[in-house]
UniProtKB/TrEMBL annotation:
<dbReference type="InterPro" id="IPR002157">
    <property type="entry name" value="Cbl-bd_prot"/>
</dbReference>
<keyword id="KW-0964">Secreted</keyword>
<keyword id="KW-0813">Transport</keyword>
<dbReference type="InterPro" id="IPR051588">
    <property type="entry name" value="Cobalamin_Transport"/>
</dbReference>
<feature type="binding site">
    <location>
        <position position="203"/>
    </location>
    <ligand>
        <name>cyanocob(III)alamin</name>
    </ligand>
</feature>
<protein>
    <submittedName>
        <fullName>IF factor</fullName>
    </submittedName>
</protein>
<keyword id="KW-0171">Cobalt transport</keyword>
<dbReference type="Pfam" id="PF14478">
    <property type="entry name" value="DUF4430"/>
</dbReference>
<dbReference type="Pfam" id="PF01122">
    <property type="entry name" value="Cobalamin_bind"/>
</dbReference>
<feature type="binding site">
    <location>
        <begin position="155"/>
        <end position="156"/>
    </location>
    <ligand>
        <name>cyanocob(III)alamin</name>
    </ligand>
</feature>
<feature type="binding site">
    <location>
        <position position="8"/>
    </location>
    <ligand>
        <name>cyanocob(III)alamin</name>
    </ligand>
</feature>
<comment type="similarity">
    <text>Belongs to the eukaryotic cobalamin transport proteins family.</text>
</comment>
<feature type="binding site">
    <location>
        <position position="53"/>
    </location>
    <ligand>
        <name>cyanocob(III)alamin</name>
    </ligand>
</feature>
<dbReference type="GO" id="GO:0015889">
    <property type="term" value="P:cobalamin transport"/>
</dbReference>
<dbReference type="GO" id="GO:0005615">
    <property type="term" value="C:extracellular space"/>
</dbReference>
<keyword id="KW-0732">Signal</keyword>
<dbReference type="GO" id="GO:0031419">
    <property type="term" value="F:cobalamin binding"/>
</dbReference>
Amino acid sequence: KRNGMIGNIYSMGLALQALEATRKFYAPRKWDCAQAFSVVYAHDYQQPMAIAQVLPALVGRSYLDVAGLDCAATKNMSPGQQLPLSPMLGTHGIPRAPIQVHYSITNTLQGKHFHYSTSVTVPSGSTLLQVMEVAAEENPQTFSFQTEQTSWGPYVTSIHGLAGSTEDRTYWQFLSAGDALDEGVGIYKPHDGEHIEAIFSTY
C-alpha cells in the first residue's frame, strides 16, 4: 500500500529490519521489498535517530544481528562498501525565493473551541517549525506554541495555550491536504501555496 511506505517515514527503518529478519517466517504473505526500499532511498534522512534505524536494513542486517557480528571480517572494508548511502544523505542548498504558506490551528475537542488562519512568507526551503515561528512572531497572542526536544527532533506540545496530554490521549496533529505529515515540524518543508493544518486530535 501507499507505494511502498510502511506506516510513515520514521517507522520504515524498523519495519524493514523486522520484515527482513522474519522473511522466512512471513510466508505466504508477500511484501514488495524493492518498492519499500525505494521509499527509503528516495528520502533525504536528516535526523540521527531515523538514520540509525534505517542503516542496518540498508546493509542487509538488523539489530538482531549485532550479537553475532564478526567485526574482524568487516573492519577492512572500504568506506564505500560500508555505507552505500549517498543517494539518501545528500545535502541541498536553500533557495532564496520567498514562498507563502497558509497555516491554521483548530480545536473542536476541548474547552473553548477555536479556529485561526494566517498566511506567512518565508524563504523556500524553510521548515514547518520556521513557518510556525514566523506566525508566532507576527501574532503571538494567537499562534504562540511550545516544543520539547526529543531524539526525533522538536515535538510540538502546545499551541495557543492548549497542550496535548497522555492522560487525555490528545496531541497536535499536522496535516496537508487532509493527510497527516510523514515528517516532524523540524524537518518538513512546505511548498509555495501549501495549507498546513494543526488540529488538536485524540488517539
